[in-house]
Amino acid sequence: MEPVRRIVGRALPLARADVDTDQIIPSQWLKRLERTGYGPGLFEAWRKDPAFVLNDPRYDGAVVLLAGANFGCGSSREHAVWALLDAGFRAVIAPRLADIFRSNALRNGLVPVETDADTVAKLVDTVRRDPTTSIAIDVERSTVEAPGLRATFALDEFSRTRLLEGLDDIAVTLRHERDIGAFEAKRPEWLPRVR
Amino acid sequence: MGSTLSEKVWERHVVRRAPGEPDLLYVDLHLVHEVTSPQAFEGLRLAKRRVRRPELTLATMDHNVPTNDQPAEEISARQIEAMARNAREFGIRCYPTGDPNQGIVHVISPQLGLTQPGMTIVCGDSHTSTHGALGALAWGIGTSEIEHVLATQTIAQTKPGTMAVIVEGVLGADCGAKDVILGIIARIGTAGGTGKVIEYRGAAIRALSMEGRLTICNMSIEAGARAGMVAPDEVTFAWLEGRPFAPKGVRWQQALDDWRALATDADARFDSEVAIDASLLRPYVTWGTNPAQSVTIDGDVPDPDALPAATRESARRALRYQDLTPGTPMREISVDAVFIGSCSNARLEDLRSAAEVVRGRHVRSGIRGLVVPGSMGVKADAEREGLDRIFTDAGFEWRDAGCSMCLGMNPDILRPGERCASTSNRNFEGRQGPGGRTHLVSPAVAAATAIAGHFALPSDLR
Fold this sequence. Notes:
The complex is a heterodimer.
Chain A: E1 6-9, E2 11-13, H1 21-24, H2 44-47, E3 64-66, H3 79-86, E4 91-94, H4 99-106, E5 111-114, H5 117-129, E6 135-138, E7 143-146, E8 149-152, H6 157-165, H7 169-174, H8 177-185
Parallel strand pairs in A: 2-3, 3-4, 4-5
Antiparallel strand pairs in A: 1-6, 6-7, 7-8
Chain B: H1 5-12, E1 14-16, E2 23-26, E3 29-33, H2 38-46, E4 57-60, H3 74-90, E5 93-95, H4 105-111, E6 120-123, E7 137-140, H5 143-152, E8 154-157, E9 161-168, H6 177-188, E10 196-201, H7 203-206, H8 210-218, E11 227-229, H9 234-240, H10 249-260, E12 272-277, E13 284-286, E14 294-296, H11 309-322, E15 337-340, H12 348-358, E16 368-371, H13 376-384, H14 387-393, E17 397-398, E18 419-422, E19 437-440, H15 443-452
Parallel strand pairs in B: 3-4, 3-6, 4-5, 6-7, 9-10, 9-12, 10-11, 15-16, 15-18, 16-17, 18-19
Antiparallel strand pairs in B: 1-2, 2-8, 13-14
Helix pairs in contact in B: 2-5, 6-8, 12-15
C-alpha cells in the first residue's frame, strides 16, 4: 500500500443515506479476478440517469466523496473500495461508514473520514454552491478543511500509522509469528480440522 | 463484573494485545468462496507466501455457480476454475460444484458440524454472521483480510461493543424466525448494530430451532452489526452431536463442558439493550430498498410524509424504484417471481415450511417460482422427504444449491421491472438483477404468495 499523508482536491456531493455496496459496484463486476479495472462499474445503475451527480461535469476530477450515513453497508465486497479508487477517489467523508467498508478502505489507503452530520452537511452545501471548492484532509492531524470550515475526524493511532507509512499488514503480523505459534500450541484438541 | 458471550469468545482468541493497537485474534475456521478470494490468493503468490493452516480453511463454490444443468458462463467459469486451482495449489479442501457437500458456505459449515460454539470464524462474505447461531463469533471480511488470514491464521480487530436484543414471549402461529429478525431490523434500523456484536436473548430465541437461529444471526449485518450470536444450549448440542466434524467420544464431553461455560454471565453488562415482545410480531414484508423498510403483511405501503423526517427522502426514492403507491395494502401487491433460497432461508426447515403451504396447490399462472436448496446436502435430505415432488407438482423449479437469485450473479435474475417475493436477505436496488424489485419475506409467506399471486399468508389461502 502507498503511504497517504494528505489529500487535497475537489469533492463529489453524493449525500445519500444507506448506500449499499451493491450500488457502489454491482455483483456482475465481482466475476473478475483482478484488483483493478472496476472504475467503469462504479455506481453503474445510477450512472444511467443523466441527472446523477457523478455525470455532472462540474465535479470531474473529484478526489473526495461526500457520502451519507451508513455508506458502504451490505456486502463485504472490497471491490467497492477498488472501484472508488479506480475512479480517482482517495477519501470518503460521511457521518458514519459501515464497519466492513471502513475496514476495507483502510487496507487500501482510501481514507475513511467519519465526522459529525453537521460538518458533512456544510461540506455538501459548500461544494454544491461552488464545485471548484478544494477540500483538504490531513491524515496525521485527522482534520478536514474547506474554506471557512475546519473539523476533526476519529482515526485510531494504529490506522493512522498504517496509512502514513503504507504498511503491509501481513508483514506486520508475521513479526509476531512466535506469539501465533504459542497460541496454536494451546488450542483445545476437539476443535475441527477440515483435512 | 461478568462477561458476555461475545467477550468470552473474543478473550479466548487474543494472540497478542498491545496498547494502542487492535487485538490480534486467532481464527479457528476460515471459509472461502470463489468470488472474493482470487485476488487474495494472487497476493500470496506475488509475495511468495503460503497458507499457514490449510486444515483450518474450507473452500466451496456458491455465489457464481449455475443452479440448473446449464454450464457456467465463460467469465463465471474462469472464477470457478480459479477457486479449484487455488485450493489445489495451496492445499485447501474444496467442495466444488458436483460434490455432495457443495453449497452456500454458510449452510454447509453448520450442516457439517464445522461451526461450533466458542469458535472464531471469518469468511469473505458479510453473512458470515450466520454462524453465530451456534455461539461462534463469526464475521465477514474483505479480500485484503482474507489474504491476511490465509497467511497468518489471525486477524487484527478492534474490540466491538456489545448489544443485547431480548425477545421475550411467544411468537404467533403465522410468524417465524424471518419475521423476528425483520421486526428487529425495523426497530433498530440498518445501522442500529454498527460497531457491535448483537446477542439475541430471551424465551422466544431459546424456543427457536437451530435453523431459525441461523436465519436470525444471518441478518445481523442488515442491522449493521459486526456479528450476531445466540448462547449455546441443548438445541445447539443436539444439532451438533453426530455431525461429521463434531467432536466424538471423550472429546465431545470435554467440548460440552467447555461450551456450557460460554453463556453470558448473570452480572455481565451490555453496552445497549433492546427488548422486543414476540407476541406483538406479525409476518413482515419489506416495501423499500433496505431491509428496515418493512411493514407487517396487514399494513399498507407507507406515505413518506408520515415517516420520520430523516428517512423521508430515502423512502421516496425507494417507492419510486419499487413503483409503489402510498396507501396500497401489502396484500394487493402482486408479484412476478417467487424465490425460495439463500443463506437466510434455504435450510431443510425452511423448505418444509414452504412445502407444507404449496402441497396440493399450484403456483399462480404467470409467476416464476424458484426453489434453490442451500446445499446439496439439504437438497438430498429434502428429496428423501419428497419435498422436491411437492414443489415441482405445484409448478416450482427445483434447483441445485447456490446463492442464485439472492444476488443475481448467475443467470437466475429478475428482468427489469419484475417484482419478487424473496426469502433472501437484501432488497437493495438491482440486487436480484438490474431493475428488479425485491420484497423480503419468510418461506411461508413466499410460498403463500406464489399460490395467491399477491402477498399472502398461508392462512389466507382457501
